[in-house]
């Protein structure tokens, strides 16, 4: 009953060739691609190794790489584009959950046919194993020595295929954060300010369906699994509380603001996840100048005198070299951990390479609930037969709902910013038990918490300081945890904090995997060209570019950055 996600032979799946377009892409395009994939399979399986040279080689088909490569193929029709991905097709993974008892993936029951794990929003909370060294998890993640121990999924679409799909606009103040004199809040460079990004934000909104109701029937599910209960707690006035005595207000949280709470926005259509990989890449794959290469790990950037000339990659245990054209550009989109690792491994570095990596540190409080809370649990390991049949037949119900069912936003006393700026996001996932509920806290505006990466002896390592590196960050998170705990303790319905109830410094700190900033604008990359300082044709176009941590979930801004980066590089190719 165990399956390895990337091994299609061990699962009741479609071998990546039987989707009908329902995952959110254009149906006609998907139909044509199915024929092409079926033909390739009939002729012997894997696509042949391209010979090159290519005008653009994009490394990494994750959230940004898929967007950048598709954009280049569209906007630079006279240039050849090769997109290289180390993982396999995301559609080969059937709906499943990671069993921590056996450290194996186990398939959900039911005849899923055209459904994959990444299609089904509700599988987000079950399929991610979070630990790259845990049993079968190693088969679908990058090795920990590549990622400084962090969980980084290894499939087409990357994080965009397995995340919670939350889409938020950052507060405009983020782009001019440097005016506050806070080390962790740098201003964004000229050309990347809010006004420069607005057209690309709008384009993202036109490409994807950004909604609070991803189910095909337009309903929001799982409200009684904990979200509504916590909403009631946070909305109540509290005269004796130190902050927000009138309670938090219900509002749209597409652009979150302090003192507000609401159902998160996600990207999904007709009950299926959308991503840059399943919306943009299918159209690019029909273009004659575009090539996608899966299960191909780039191992080295070949370069001379600051110019990349080729990449070396391994596929099916065979090493290949693919060359760039004379005026070609290598575009690194392998993520904020793998991009600096590959460059450092290849001997490409500068003063900003691998520096100032950041994340949104996370803590979790667990509450023991009395029966008065009336929580309706929603199990995922595996789901109920009713939930499965509703998702298979109608793409609706609880499994059409992504993880967080409620998000709320706080500002700690004394932190600088405009009236709407916030420091902490609180969210609730569907409870799996009537007796327990977990409340999650994310530090969205870390002021000092970052770390440097080093590469030595084949291993990427991360230095200290990634979480709560100064008292201000500790105090900000402590404020949020105390805020919730105080309000929970005032309930007539009994709720007792049983885990992570005291000092933040004694709390288990987790990563939310919003890594960024490791080859940032102005420090490592020229923001006018995206070219790495010290090189002539190596560009970076992923979360490594972030000047500081994003004051929101990063998916929306990274999608917009991918479109803008594609346009910039395509325009350069035309000259």
Q: Quickly count the helices.
A: 12
Q: Structural class, judged by helices and strands?
A: alpha+beta
Distance between the termini: 56 Å
* Strand content bin: 15-25%
Task: Tell me how many strands there are.
Answer: 23
Return Rg in Å: 23 Å
Fold and architecture overview:
With 575 residues, the chain is α+β, with helices and mostly antiparallel strands. It contains 12 helices and 23 strands. α2 runs parallel beside α12 and α5 crosses α12.
Structure summary:
The protein is an alpha+beta fold. The protein has helices at 27-42, 63-75, 124-127, 144-147, 194-207, 227-235, 276-279, 281-284, 335-345, 385-394, 471-489, 555-574, and strands at residues 2-3, 54-59, 81-84, 96-99, 104-107, 210-211, 249-250, 260-262, 266-269, 272-273, 290-293, 297-304, 307-315, 318-332, 361-369, 406-410, 424-428, 436-443, 453-456, 459-462, 495-499, 510-511, 538-540. Strand 12 (297-304) and strand 13 form a beta hairpin.
What is this structure's SSE topology?
Blueprint: E1 2-3, H1 27-42, E2 54-59, H2 63-75, E3 81-84, E4 96-99, E5 104-107, H3 124-127, H4 144-147, H5 194-207, E6 210-211, H6 227-235, E7 249-250, E8 260-262, E9 266-269, E10 272-273, H7 276-279, H8 281-284, E11 290-293, E12 297-304, E13 307-315, E14 318-332, H9 335-345, E15 361-369, H10 385-394, E16 406-410, E17 424-428, E18 436-443, E19 453-456, E20 459-462, H11 471-489, E21 495-499, E22 510-511, E23 538-540, H12 555-574
Parallel strand pairs: 2-3, 2-14, 3-11, 7-8, 14-23
Antiparallel strand pairs: 1-5, 4-5, 6-9, 8-16, 9-10, 12-13, 13-14, 15-18, 15-21, 15-22, 16-17, 17-18, 19-20
């Amino acid at each position: 009953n165990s399956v390895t996600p990337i091994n299609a032979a061990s699962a009741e799946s479609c071998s990546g060739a039987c989707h009908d377009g329902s995952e959110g892409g254009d149906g006609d395009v998907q139909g044509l691609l199915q024929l092409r994939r079926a033909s390739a399979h009939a002729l012997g399986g894997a696509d042949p190794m391209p010979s090159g040279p290519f005008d653009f080689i994009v490394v990494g088909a994750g959230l940004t790489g898929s967007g950048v490569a598709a954009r280049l193929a569209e906007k630079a029709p006279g240039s050849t584009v090769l997109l290289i991905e180390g993982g396999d097709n995301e559609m080969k993974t059937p709906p499943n959950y990671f069993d921590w008892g056996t450290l194996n993936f186990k398939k959900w029951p039911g005849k899923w046919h055209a459904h994959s794990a990444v299609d089904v929003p509700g599988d987000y909370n079950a399929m991610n194993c979070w630990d790259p060294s845990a049993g079968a998890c190693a088969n679908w993640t990058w090795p920990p020595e590549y990622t400084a121990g962090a969980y980084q999924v290894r499939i087409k679409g990357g994080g965009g295929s397995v995340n919670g799909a939350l889409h938020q606009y950052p507060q405009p103040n983020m782009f001019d954060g440097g005016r506050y004199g806070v080390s962790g809040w740098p201003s964004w460079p000229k050309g990347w300010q809010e006004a420069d990004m607005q057209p690309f934000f709008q384009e993202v909104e036109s490409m994807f369906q950004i909604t609070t109701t991803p189910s095909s029937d337009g309903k929001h599910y799982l409200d009684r699994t904990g979200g509504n209960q916590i909403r009631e707690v946070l909305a109540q006035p509290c005269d004796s509380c130190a902050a927000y005595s009138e309670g938090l207000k219900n509002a749209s949280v597409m652009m979150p603001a302090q003192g507000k709470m609401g159902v998160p926005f996600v990207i999904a259509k007709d009950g299926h996840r959308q991503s840059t990989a399943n919306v943009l890449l299918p159209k690019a794959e029909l273009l004659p100048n575009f090539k996608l290469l899966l299960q191909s790990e780039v191992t080295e950037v070949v370069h001379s005198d600051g110019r990349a000339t080729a990449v070396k990659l391994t596929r099916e245990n065979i090493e290949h070299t693919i060359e760039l054209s004379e005026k070609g550009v290598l575009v690194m989109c392998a993520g904020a951990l793998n991009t600096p690792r590959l460059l450092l491994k290849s001997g490409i570095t500068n003063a900003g390479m691998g520096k100032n990596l950041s994340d949104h540190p996370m803590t979790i409080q667990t509450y023991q609930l009395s029966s008065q809370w009336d929580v309706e649990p929603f199990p995922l390991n595996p789901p109920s037969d009713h939930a499965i049949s509703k998702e298979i037949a109608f793409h609706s119900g609880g499994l059409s709902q992504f993880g967080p069912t409620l998000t709320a936003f706080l500002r700690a006393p004394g932190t600088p910013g405009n009236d709407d700026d916030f420091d902490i996001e609180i969210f609730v996932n569907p409870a799996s038990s009537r007796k327990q509920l977990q409340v999650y806290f994310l530090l969205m505006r870390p002021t000092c918490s970052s770390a440097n990466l080093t590469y030595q002896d084949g291993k990427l390592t991360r230095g200290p300081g990634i979480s709560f590196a100064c008292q201000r960050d500790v105090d900000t998170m402590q404020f949020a945890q105390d805020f919730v705990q105080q309000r929970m303790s005032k309930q007539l319905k009994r709720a007792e904090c049983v885990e992570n109830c005291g000092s933040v410094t004694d709390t288990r700190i987790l990563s939310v995997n919003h890594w960024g900033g490791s080859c940032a604008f102005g420090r490592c990359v020229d923001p006018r060209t995206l070219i790495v300082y010290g090189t002539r044709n190596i560009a970076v176009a992923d979360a490594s570019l972030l000047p500081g941590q994003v004051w929101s979930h990063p998916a929306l801004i990274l999608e917009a950055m991918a479109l803008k980066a594609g346009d910039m590089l395509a325009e350069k190719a035309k000259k």
